[in-house]
Amino acid sequence: MYFLAFFLFIAACVQFADPQVFNPIDYGAKGDGISNDTEAVRATLAAVAANKGGEVLFDSQFAFLTGCFNITSNVILNVKGTILASQDSSNYIQVRGALQWQSLVQANSASNITITGGGTIDGQGAPWWACLHRGNDSLHLHGPPCNGLDRPNLIMLAQTNNINIHNITLKDSPILNTHLHGCTNVHMSHITVLAPWDSPNTDGFDIDCSVNVLLEDSFYSGGDDAIAIGCGDSRATSSENVLIRNMTVERSHGLSIGSGTLGGVRNITFDHITGVYLLVFMTLIDY
Ligand SMILES: *[C@@H]1O[C@H](CO)[C@@H](O)[C@H](O)[C@H]1NC(C)=O
Ligand SMILES: *[C@@H]1O[C@H](CO)[C@@H](O)[C@H](O)[C@H]1NC(C)=O
Ligand SMILES: *[C@@H]1O[C@H](CO)[C@@H](O)[C@H](O)[C@H]1NC(C)=O
Ligand SMILES: *[C@@H]1O[C@H](CO)[C@@H](O)[C@H](O)[C@H]1NC(C)=O
Ligand SMILES: *[C@@H]1O[C@H](CO)[C@@H](O)[C@H](O)[C@H]1NC(C)=O
Ligand SMILES: *[C@@H]1O[C@H](CO)[C@@H](O)[C@H](O)[C@H]1NC(C)=O
Ligand SMILES: *[C@@H]1O[C@H](CO)[C@@H](O)[C@H](O)[C@H]1NC(C)=O
What we know:
single chain; mainly beta; Pectate Lyase C-like; 13-stranded mixed beta sheet; seven-stranded parallel beta sheet; 40% strand; binds 2-acetamido-2-deoxy-beta-D-glucopyranose; signal; Pectin_lyase_fold/virulence; Pectin_lyas_fold
């Protein structure tokens, strides 16, 4: 048995050589936090996609001001420095068939995606939050930067498998911080989510119609639900086998399970959620 494990270990080392590194600076990014790096960042992601994977390095001494971009399969987003979300909707693309700007970091139908590095993805959400306060109700998204469409999420991964998000700070998202939809095999850990207590809809972790999700060792302080688990998509079955443990929740509207649910949730466990909820232990099966 030990010999077999050893051989498998060697095989893994041979098969998974260090991924090729792609640096936005090499694609024309300035990384000064002021210049428009959208085109350079998208070019970097296009290059790593053409390579069928690799590591995109947002290096520690830089702040990349960018609009939305897509991540494809087998990509490691290594954020050692800062990604600053543009506050100008000209840097975003409308989601096809939806009245919303595309999420800053978006993956569709991909697999094997890692987001890490110890750095920060800063949504710079203030002007996006202000759209809501201008109108009579949440649908009054007139004026910049919303310009009639709903705000972009910070990270949205849709129909994506084998996701690892760890060791990263997510700050001031325009709306949701991490939105999983139709994803399978997800591990999220050591994530810090920060937003002001009065920032609208800045949920931490939205787990929609996703299966086999482990979220642990993370921190939330923000303006809405720390964690929301559901499945509001009639085509999908449910959110299943979700384990949330060792979370610290400072400020939030709470934990939301099954709200807006069509497909339902099944086998959700919360273990050691501290802060507002001092020591919660709860398992839901066939909710
Ligand atoms: C930034 O660059 C992108 C891509 O070239 C472009 O679509 C956008 O209009 C630019 N934004 C600003 C504010 O200049
Ligand atoms: C991201 O991919 C979607 C299709 O999956 C596409 O519609 C969109 O234009 C892409 N966005 C960018 C910034 O390339
Ligand atoms: C996942 O992607 C990384 C980065 O490209 C690569 O090194 C690794 O081999 C991939 N893993 C699998 C199981 O394909
Ligand atoms: C997070 O990333 C930083 C910078 O790369 C590293 O020094 C640190 O050890 C990492 N922490 C964890 C918990 O992975
Ligand atoms: C508020 O609602 C009223 C009635 O629906 C509308 O006439 C008005 O333009 C709205 N004001 C703003 C700032 O959206
Ligand atoms: C719980 O998570 C925190 C990070 O938020 C970490 O420092 C701590 O070691 C974790 N505790 C356990 C028992 O894993
Ligand atoms: C419930 O989910 C956990 C992971 O959180 C998994 O280990 C367990 O097998 C699941 N139980 C059932 C009955 O599916």
